[in-house]
Design brief:
The protein contains 9 helices and 14 strands. The chain is of the alpha/beta class. It has an 8-stranded mixed beta sheet with strand order 5-8-2-1-11-13-14-12, with helices on both faces. Helix 2 links the parallel strand 1 (27-32) and strand 2. Helix 6 packs parallel to helix 8 (242-254).
């Protein structure tokens, strides 16, 4: 039995070799969120995965949100969380809380977690080095201080990567005149991946990927060409909260990212499964 187990373990490593070679010295952007960010066991698995990837020569950029932590802090100070069309309404008091929680509490906790796993991480936010320049999001209903990214300055990120750090990026940005804006984390990860010419963009979610039947995980669609997306929308297969996520994937591919993936962050080590196996994890967009 021990020899069989040794054989299986060695085969896993052999099978992973071509993917390690493929991604060596390439940039992979991971948007971290959902249950993988709140479940302690999953959080530890994500951190160990990221450190492992860096040790085999993959340049990982971690982009994160922090919705539950923001909701918790808003509750503590007596501000009601309000969402319009899936986006957080962000008034002046709320944007201050968002900046404090994302750039302070959540960002530094992730840096510390990576350090516990012997990772060399550097906490950043979109305001640092004018990394993310934004303007007020133009919508029919006023969302307050919610922004659209108009420019990405990749230098703070590439400087960190070249110095051997894992950049951990909180998704707040500022305008040219210094106004702080709350930025959707999927959107920020997509734009950052495109600007970096990333090999892969991975969005971690709380579902298996894109499903033909949203109630049946067995109907997972493993791969989608971006040209198929309008048809899948008309069929109702892409609907609801999946629309903005998939639009981010499509936008990244059209801006030059080789591949984007929506994976199930509830599965331990789903990042490794996606990057270092033939089967992958979730749905990829090419």
């Amino acid at each position: 039995m021990e020899r069989i187990n040794d054989s299986i373990r060695s085969q896993v490593l052999i099978d992973a070799l071509p993917y390690i070679q493929k991604y060596n010295n390439k940039i992979v952007v991971i948007k971290y969120g959902g249950n993988a960010m709140t479940n302690e066991e999953l959080k530890q698995a994500v951190m160990s995965d990221i450190v492992l990837l860096t040790l085999v020569g993959i340049k990982v950029v971690l982009v994160h949100g922090g919705g539950p932590e923001i909701n918790e802090m808003l509750g503590k100070v007596g501000i009601e969380s309000k969402f319009i069309g899936g986006l957080r309404y962000t008034d002046k008091d709320t944007v201050d809380i968002v900046q404090m929680v994302l750039s302070g509490k959540v960002n530094k906790e992730l840096v510390a977690l990576l350090a516990q796993h012997k990772g060399n991480a550097l906490g950043l936010c979109g305001i640092d080095g004018q990394m993310l320049i934004a303007e007020k999001k133009d919508t029919e209903v006023d969302l307050g201080y919610v922004g659209d990214i108009v420019k990405v300055n990749k230098k703070p990120i590439t400087d960190a990567l070249e110095s051997g750090y894992i950049p951990v990026i909180a998704t707040v940005a500022c305008s040219e005149n210094g106004q702080t804006y709350n930025i959707n984390a999927d959107t920020a990860a997509s734009r950052i991946a495109a600007e970096l010419g990333a090999e892969n963009l991975i969005l971690m979610t709380d579902i298996a990927g894109l499903l033909r039947d949203k109630d049946n995980p067995a109907t997972l669609i493993p791969s989608v060409n971006v040209s198929e997306v309008p048809f899948l929308k008309r069929q109702g297969i892409i609907s609801g909260g999946m629309i903005p996520k998939i639009e981010c994937c499509v936008e990244a591919v059209r801006r030059g990212v080789k591949k984007t993936s929506i994976i199930d962050g509830r599965i331990p080590h789903s990042i490794l499964i996606e990057l270092l196996t033939n089967e992958g994890s979730g749905t990829q967009f090419v």
